[in-house]
């Protein structure tokens, strides 16, 4: 069996768990409310793994699809951190599971990690099993804390904080997909010289940019609340992508057109704005 099979299997398990939880809890929470929290949890894992894996090369995914190790890391990251990890977070908060279940899930992830290493589809560099256990416990406790906080104070900075992580997932996800498809890449000399890998340096450049763009997006959409200000993210994205292309930071590959890139990002910004506007309206009036 190919390496990718096992990653896809875990992704399918994550999707099934999420779908089941959304269905079973639909009378308590709106589906949109839980999906927002799903994206919040995914955003947390994305940022966390960007630091641990992207900046410090702690371990490696071996998906078997690409020959480049960082392309494999990027694909493995996208598959697991957009499905399995947030799925577990949704189950934990939706069913109000306690410390016993947190311990069980932590042990389960450690076992999965061990098995993945044994069959050669994942490897540690300086990372250790106990670090995985600590990371899982911290992740689940943070998710539980913020889900509770969303129930108690669903407005102001709490809402903005939640939507920052949601926006990060929505705004950033086109970048690694286009990169893996060979449509675009990003380059800045000092970044490329320090992180001497095509996929890694591209990811670092666009990820840091999206951290900033997402911050501005949340201010314009979630805090200022004026319809005029909601046009600003669209303009910002067009200007930024155009300037990046002009400065040769954004490089278009394989006949790809800048217009396609701009259009994709505009669509995803619109998705976030609509999600922020029409979601988090719980049947329990959790959100104002």
TrEMBL record:
It comes from the Bacteria. The chain crosses the membrane at residues 6-23, 35-56, 76-95, 102-121, 127-147, 159-179, 199-224, 231-252, 258-275. Keywords: Membrane, Transmembrane, Transmembrane helix. This is Uncharacterized protein. The lineage of its organism: Bacteria, Bacillati, Bacillota, Clostridia, Peptostreptococcales.
